[in-house]
Amino acid sequence: MDHITPARRSWLMSRVKSRNTGPELRVRKVAHALGYRFTLHSSSLPGKPDLTFPRLRSVIFVHGCFWHRHQSCSKASMPNSRPEFWAAKFKRNVERDTRVRSELRRRGWRVCVVWECETKKPAVLRSKVRRFLSRSEAGASASSKVAASRSKFACENTKTNYKGRSRRKKIVSEIKR
Questions:
Q1: Angle 106-94-105 (CA atoms, 0-180°, nearest 5)?
Q2: Summary mean pLDDT of the chain
Q3: 3-state SS of the chain?
Q4: Cβ atoms of 73 and 65 closer than 8 Å
Q5: Which of 49, 97, 136, 152 gets the most CB atoms within 10 Å of its CB?
């Protein structure tokens, strides 16, 4: 039984933020301190990830334990009022999270989920973010080497003008003027 009136409960729930939450700010601070730069809430990607690292093709979601049902976490409790409503809501949230992660991976993005309770332990959070982003960086550098070898081959096959500059570089320099 809920000790708060339905109107008061509705008002309280309307105040729950979805962006710029405390856990999200802690993850941002750690990623920035590690030297990584990111964009926030990219609307061009499924699920609007909290942090997007485009160069690394990696995203981080910061999930609240209650709303996203963190397994074996005390914050993922079931409210006593309207349990059937909450069960259906939580089920939809978990299904959506799974669908979004699958879609991002299908598109070639690496995905990391940081749980709210993990953000309260700075050493654990720093370790998890560093490990994820360094692995992403290793994967990105390997794919950039392949791209660099392809572009080198393409540059070798471009015709050069009388000053020895390739046409591509000349066109780019003219556009910048």
A1: 10
A2: 82
A3: CCCCCHHHHHHHHHCCCCCCCHHHHHHHHHHHHCCCCCEECCCCCCCCCCEEEHHHCEEEEEECHHHHCCCCCCCCCCCCCCHHHHHHHHHHHHHHHHHHHHHHHHCCCEEEEEEHHHHHCHHHHHHHHHHHHHHHHHHHHHHHHHHHHHHHHHHHCCCECCCCCEHHHHHHHHHHC
A4: yes
A5: 49
- Which residues are 160's β-sheet partners? 166
Structure tokens at 22: 């405390």
Residue 120 CB neighbours (<10 A): 12
Q: Which residues are registered as beta bridge partners of 112? A: 60
| 97 CB burial (10 A radius; 0-12, 13-18, 19+) | middle
Distance of CA 60 to the CA centre of its chain: 3
Query: What's the full length of the chain, in residues?
Result: 177
The token pair that represents 83 in the structure block = 């349990």
For the record, the structure tokens of 3 come out as 């000790």
**Selected residue with higher pLDDT from 105 and 156:** 105
Structural contact between residues 68 and 79, judged by C-beta atoms closer than 8 angstroms? no
pLDDT in tens, 6-65: 888 788 878 777 788 999 999 999 999 999 999 999 999 999 999 999 999 999 999 999
